[in-house]
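Schema walk-through. Below, the input block comes first and the output block second. Nothing else is stored per chain. Lengths vary across the set, and this one has 389 residues.
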Amino acid sequence: MSPKNVIFKKISKDKSVAVYMGRRDFVDHVTSVEPVDGVVLIDPELLKGKKAYVALSCTFRYGRDDIDVIGLAFRRDIYLSTRQIYPALQDKKQCTLTKVQEKLLRKLGDNAYPFFFEFPDNLPCSVCLQPAPKDVGKHCAVEFEVKAFSAESQDAKVRKRSTVHLMIRKVQYAPLNLGPAPTVSITRDFLMSDKPLHVEASLEKQTFYHGEPIQVRVNINNESNKSVKNIILSVDQIATVVLYSSDSYMKSVELLETGDTLGASSKMEKTYTMLPLLANNKERRGIVLDGKLKHEDTNLASTSIIKDGVLKEVLGILVSYRVMVKLLVGGLVGSSEVGLELPFQLMHPKPELVKESEEEDVVFEEFKRANLKGMQEDDEEGNISAGEP
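--- output ---
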């Protein structure tokens, strides 16, 4: 028996427009990004002469929508593209359709219209910052959304009941061509010591999968007259937030104080195991996570890989990782640190391709709307701007 196609479906409250999509995750292959495709079903009678539009947006949210300062909301649209669906500006027969769109158009009939968006190169992937345990509401995140709505014109005000929102994600997977394994060495001279301290650290590969142990090899040749008092290892997540300016924030997501020591004129080689997991950082505010849909489980954010030549144009949150190896070195007078940095990638493996079913049958996964107490539905309540052309 052939697998059926699962279709995500969401309908506006007044039932004038509905969005149908065959997937909600779109893969950024660095050199190209999978286009966003789907179908909008309209009801001409319920539209009452209005037009129907569909939009793809990328929003950087850095606060709750209901909080603003001197009239400025804590959000910024990084990207917005809006297209008219109905009345159609192009004959459906002239459109290049995906197999899922072809099936949906046959099943939904003449009032269904396909849409197609391409991501620009300078958009980040879907990520969010982990809130504190007591925080409520929406929090800092890079979010992607497909929105369909009906209105008199693209710039007219739109009622919430005539709008449907469907969250999607832009994701990246580990590259097939892996880079060289990171290795770094340092030689440190000390006052009142004729010979130096040599340290080398390395990882077995450049890219690790979420949940995979990271083996860190540390080789020390201490020719100095100083002693190593402790060896501390950490896995650091570095989040670069690019909006009005560029700021970087570092959080250690795994820490290992080994307690290992090494005397003067001695050698040591040892392999340490690190395992950075969200499960060990659940209570820590500000850790960057992969974007999630509704209440799905997620993980530490994957490494951001940017296409060559567009780094300076990217807005949002970019994530990188490193292993830090620190040696606390002591002598007769004071102590000092010797540090080594090993950058690496933390990502998901690329999933196996699932062969698309040739059957006409599709399974619709419909999103239920929660009725909120006290919500008014008059013409002015909850109006939103349709956005830019």
